[in-house]
Specification:
Blueprint: H1 2-15, H2 26-36, E1 42-45, E2 48-58, E3 61-70, H3 81-95, H4 97-105, E4 107-113, E5 119-125
Parallel strand pairs: 3-4
Antiparallel strand pairs: 1-2, 2-3, 4-5
Helix pairs in contact: 1-4, 3-4
Amino acid sequence: MKKMSIRLMAVLLLTLPVAAQARVSYKACQERASIDSAQYPQRIDKDTTITGVSCKQAEGRVIYVYDNKLDAPRSQLPKGAMKRKALAIRSMLCTNPSLTALLKLVDMEYTFYDSENKFIGTITNRIEDCGSQWHN
């Protein structure tokens, strides 16, 4: 998951405005998601497939959304699986300088569904989530 997500986010970073204080506009996010959608579905690790991407707005912020499908039904997910995924995603976003730069431009959300397309949960990351514990 890490290598694929880093590559996809790096592409996003390179194609969005990089002004120091500028956040990505909703329109720019939608345009990028439209382009990126051609890459999906795509398996990113042994049990997860990104099925698509989109953008949304919430609380005045633009959010780039990855829709993920897990290979197992919700009832078969190990206890704590989503918490571990959330920590792994946050660690990836907050410790990689390129991804942290991207997170300054747009919030990232990962929505998960089980193998029966039942909603499991959402993991949203903002630059504010990258506190001092994530920096070397």
